[in-house]
Write a structure and sequence with these properties.
alpha/beta; six-stranded mixed sheet; 27 helices; 16% strand; disordered N terminus
Length: 617
C-alpha cells in the first residue's frame, strides 16, 4: 500500500520516489493491472464516493455503498451496555468488513467507540481518530511499539469508553492441523487489557470465512492473504452477513481466572461458541425433525376434566393433607385412589407442559404404572378451580419393601445395586414435576410446591435424602447438554455412590469440541457451572442458561450420580441428582421448611446419628 496519506491515495500501490528508475518503470507497467486484479482500483473508486462522509457516519455509509446488510436480534442488541467501560472482542474471519459492521453496530448504542487495530487503518482519515494503532506483523520491535497503544487502550477504558479488539491481529485462515478455517492464536495483550482495566467484556462472533483461493494463497505465503483482502472485501457486496452478540461477561467473573493466557482462552471459547449450532425448534422431537414433520406419531392430548369433579375431589381431602397455602394457591398431598379425576388431569397437564419444551411421552396423557403407588403433591388454584402444577413422590422404604427396585420409576432409567439404598436409608424419589405454562411467569408456584415438599419432610423427618431425574430437554442443543453434563461430572459427581448406579442408555462421554478452539479447551472451563450456564445462554438463547429445576437442586447441594438418555420420553437427558438435606445450607432449608421446621428436622437427624453411633460403639 502507498505511504501517502491523502484521501485519494488510501487505496493505491506505488513504488517509492527514490527507487531506481528501472523499478519505477516496471512499477508503472505492472501496478495498474495488478490493482485491477486485486480489487484495489475498485476499492479506491468506492472510497472516493464516500470520502466526504463524517467519521460518525462513515461505517454505515460504507456498508450501504457495498450493499452489505446485517441485523442482529433486538435481544442481542440489548446486551450492549449503554454506558461504562467495555471491551468488545470478536473473531476476524474476513479481514475488513466485520470491522465496519461492528463499528456501525456499536455506534447504534454508543458514540465512545475506539478500535485497537492495524496501524494501516489510520490512512483512512474518517477512521484515524477512532483507531488505536498496533503493529500486528510480529517484527522484532513490534512488542516495544505496542506498549504505547496498550497504555492508550487502558486510559480509554478508565474513561468509560468502548474498546473493540480483534485479538487475532490477522484474518482467519485454513489450519491444516485443525482441518478448519479459524483465527490464529489470540494475543495475550487482550488478557492484560481485560484484567488491568476492570472492564466488562462482550464477545461477538461473525460466521463465515473468505474464499477457497484466499485460503490456498495463504498456504503459499501469509502475505499473499494480505494483498487479497481488497478482493475479499468486494466479494461481500450485496450480501447479508450474520453477526451474533454474546452475553456480557462481568469483570468480577474474569478476575477469578488466574492468568492473562487463561482469560484469552476463555474469551476465545465464549466467542467461538456463539457460532455453534442452535437447538432444535421448541416442541420438535428428533424423530419429527428427521421426517420433516411434527407430531405424525403423537396422539392428541385428552380434554381437561370437568372443574366440578376436580373441586369435589379436593374438598373431600382431609385438611391434614393441606401442606402449604398462599392466597388462592394451595399445596395438597394425596394418594392415587383419593384423586382419580385429579390424577387424570395431572397426567394431561404433564403431557401438555412437557411437549411445550420438547419432551413428553407422545401419548394422550402422561400416566404410568408408578402413579398408582406414588404420592402426589399438587398445586391447586381454589379460585380458578384448576391444577397449576405437581410433583410425584416415591417413598423408597415402602416401595422397595412392597415392589422391590422395579417399583421405582428411576429403575427404568438406571440400574441400581442394592447397596445404594442400604447407604441412603429412607429416601424420597422426586419426579414428573411441572408447573403449567401460564403459571411459569412467576417463581411463586415452584416455591410453593417446594414448601409443600418441605412440610411433608418435616412431618416425615426420616426422609433426609431426596433423589430423582432432572431433565435437560431436546430444546437444548447437543453441545449445551454435553457442556452441562461435563460440568456436573467434573465438579459435582458423588464417586462413592455413583459406582452403585449405571445408566441404561449412557450419554456419550466424547469430549466437547468447539470449532475454532483447541481440543480440550471447553473441558478446561467446565468445572464452573456458572460459567457453563453463561455459555449455554449464548448457544441456546431461548433457554436462558441452566434449566431452572436443575439449578434448584444444585442450590440444595445436589450431587450427580449418573446421566441417562430417555428414549421413551423424547430423548431427554436425565441427570440423576441426589440431595442430602442435612448438608443443605440452613438458610436454604429455612426457605422451604420454615425456621421451626428446620430445627425440628435437624434435631431429629442429630438424634438418629447419635443412636447410630451408640449402636456402632
Amino acid at each position: 500500500m502507498s505511504n501517502h496519506t491523502s484521501p485519494a491515495d488510501v487505496f493505491r500501490f506505488s513504488v517509492p520516489a527514490d527507487a531506481p528508475l528501472s523499478h519505477r518503470l516496471a512499477g508503472a507497467l505492472a501496478i495498474p493491472p495488478l490493482e485491477r486484479l486485486l480489487g484495489v482500483k475498485r476499492c479506491r473508486e468506492l472510497y472516493a464516493d464516500i470520502a466526504d462522509q463524517a467519521p460518525e457516519r462513515f461505517a454505515d455509509v460504507a456498508l450501504e455503498r457495498l450493499g452489505v446488510k446485517f441485523e442482529p436480534s433486538p435481544e442481542e442488541m440489548a446486551r450492549i451496555p449503554a454506558a461504562g467501560p467495555l471491551v468488545v472482542v470478536a473473531n476476524h474471519p474476513f479481514g475488513g468488513i466485520e470491522g465496519l459492521m461492528l463499528i456501525a453496530l456499536l455506534r447504534r448504542v454508543r458514540s465512545d467507540v475506539k478500535v485497537m487495530a492495524n496501524y494501516l487503518l489510520q490512512r483512512i482519515p474518517q477512521l484515524a481518530d477512532m483507531v488505536i494503532p498496533v503493529d500486528p506483523f510480529g517484527a522484532s520491535d513490534s512488542a516495544r511499539r505496542n506498549i504505547g497503544p496498550l497504555r492508550e487502550s487502558l486510559r480509554w477504558l478508565k474513561q468509560g469508553g468502548v474498546l473493540l479488539v480483534f485479538p487475532a491481529g490477522e484474518v482467519s485462515s485454513f489450519k491444516p492441523s485443525h482441518r478448519s478455517v479459524a483465527d490464529p492464536p489470540w494475543s495475550d495483550t487482550l488478557g492484560r487489557i481485560v484484567r488491568r482495566s476492570g472492564a466488562a467484556t462482550l464477545p461477538v462472533f461473525f460466521p463465515g470465512r473468505n474464499g477457497l483461493f484466499f485460503q490456498l494463497a495463504g498456504l503459499v505465503h501469509p502475505r499473499l492473504r494480505t494483498v487479497l483482502l481488497p478482493r475479499e472485501l468486494l466479494n461481500k457486496r450485496g450480501r447479508t452477513l450474520s453477526v451474533r452478540v454474546g452475553s456480557l461477561i462481568p469483570a468480577r467473573q474474569l478476575a477469578q481466572i488466574e492468568s492473562d493466557r487463561e482469560v484469552v482462552d476463555y474469551l476465545r471459547l465464549r466467542t467461538y461458541m456463539l457460532g455453534c449450532k442452535p437447538a432444535r425448534q421448541p416442541g420438535r422431537s428428533p424423530m419429527a425433525e428427521e421426517a420433516g414433520e411434527e407430531g405424525e406419531d403423537t396422539a392428541a392430548v385428552i380434554a381437561s376434566q370437568e372443574a366440578k369433579l376436580l373441586t369435589a375431589e379436593v374438598s373431600r381431602l382431609p385438611v391434614t393433607q393441606l401442606l402449604a397455602e398462599n392466597g388462592d394457591l394451595q399445596v395438597w398431598q394425596a394418594e392415587a385412589e383419593q384423586i382419580p379425576y385429579l390424577l387424570l388431569e395431572i397426567g394431561r397437564l404433564r403431557e401438555t407442559t412437557f411437549r411445550a419444551i420438547g419432551e413428553g411421552s407422545g401419548k394422550p396423557f402422561d400416566i404410568d404404572r408408578f402413579d398408582q403407588h406414588y404420592l402426589h403433591i399438587f398445586l391447586w388454584n381454589k379460585e380458578r378451580q384448576e391444577v397449576a402444577g405437581a410433583y410425584r413422590l416415591g417413598r423408597c422404604d415402602r416401595i422397595l419393601q412392597q415392589y422391590g427396585k422395579s417399583g421405582l420409576y428411576t429403575s427404568t432409567l438406571f440400574k441400581y445395586r442394592s447397596k445404594l439404598f442400604e447407604r441412603l436409608g429412607p429416601a424420597l424419589e422426586l419426579g414428573r414435576s411441572f408447573v403449567r405454562t401460564e403459571y411459569q411467569r412467576s417463581y411463586t408456584p415452584l416455591l410453593l410446591l417446594w414448601k409443600g415438599i418441605g412440610a411433608f419432610v418435616v412431618a416425615n423427618p426420616q426422609y433426609r435424602t431426596l433423589f430423582g431425574p432432572v431433565s435437560i430437554s431436546r430444546d437444548y442443543s447437543d453441545l449445551s447438554r454435553r457442556l452441562i453434563a461435563g460440568s456436573l461430572r467434573e465438579s459435582l459427581l458423588a464417586p462413592q455412590l455413583a459406582r452403585l448406579v449405571k445408566a441404561r442408555v449412557p450419554l456419550n462421554k466424547k469430549p466437547v469440541r468447539v470449532k475454532g478452539c483447541d481440543a480440550g479447551l471447553a473441558h478446561t472451563f467446565c468445572s464452573n457451572i456458572d460459567q457453563v450456564g453463561a455459555m449455554v445462554a449464548d448457544i441456546d438463547v431461548e433457554q436462558k442458561g441452566i434449566p431452572v429445576l436443575l439449578r434448584h437442586y444444585l442450590n440444595l447441594g445436589g450431587k450427580l450420580l449418573a446421566f441417562n438418555v430417555d428414549r421413551e420420553f423424547s430423548d431427554v437427558l436425565d441427570g440423576l441428582i441426589l440431595v442430602d438435606l442435612t448438608e443443605t445450607e440452613r438458610k436454604t432449608l429455612q426457605r422451604y421448611f420454615g425456621k421451626e421446621g428446620t430445627e425440628a428436622f435437624l434435631n431429629y437427624q442429630r438424634m438418629v446419628d447419635m443412636q447410630s453411633q451408640a449402636l456402632c460403639a
